[in-house]
Amino acid sequence: MLWVVNAVSVAVAVLLFVLAGLWAVVGIRGLRxxxxxxxxxxVRSAETMRSDEAFGVANRIAGPGTLGAGLILALGGxxxxxxxxxxxxxxxxxxxxxxxVVIGLVSGIGVRAAAAVPVDDDGCSCCSGGDAHGHAADEDxxxxxxxxxxxxxxxxxxxxxxxxxxxxA
Length: 169
Prior knowledge:
With 169 residues, the chain is mainly α. It has helices at 2-32, 52-82, 87-115. The protein has 2 domains: 2-115, no CATH class; 121-169, no CATH class. The chain crosses the membrane at residues 6-28, 61-83, 89-111. It holds the Pfam family SdpI.
């Protein structure tokens, strides 16, 4: 029975070390401003994903906490391996929970900082209620979806798709 506890302890410790390494890399790259905007790692929310600057600000703010969470996980992995009893799993679980709470807190702070970054408005709000200046979508014939005749979310990314050449021509 003890060998099962030891095997599970080793597996938990490896998981904690892998997560600690990942969060350390994210924290360091976030602090240095070299973490590119992406969909998988870093602080990701609607506020942070709207621009590279907002993503960078959020991850610079969250970087120290992310490094701290990585340190907590590494210490939890060491404690999981060092304690030879069933308590080793408790150390691993507690360190994971504490690290997740820290990540949640610093991510929230990062999202608030990203929300304070001014929006680089090129006249496109990308949603059906018109532009950021309060004009209705049908009042602005040069709006993001004017070439399609409708205004809907995602229109900025589709700008120019409906105009010009037809795919079937």
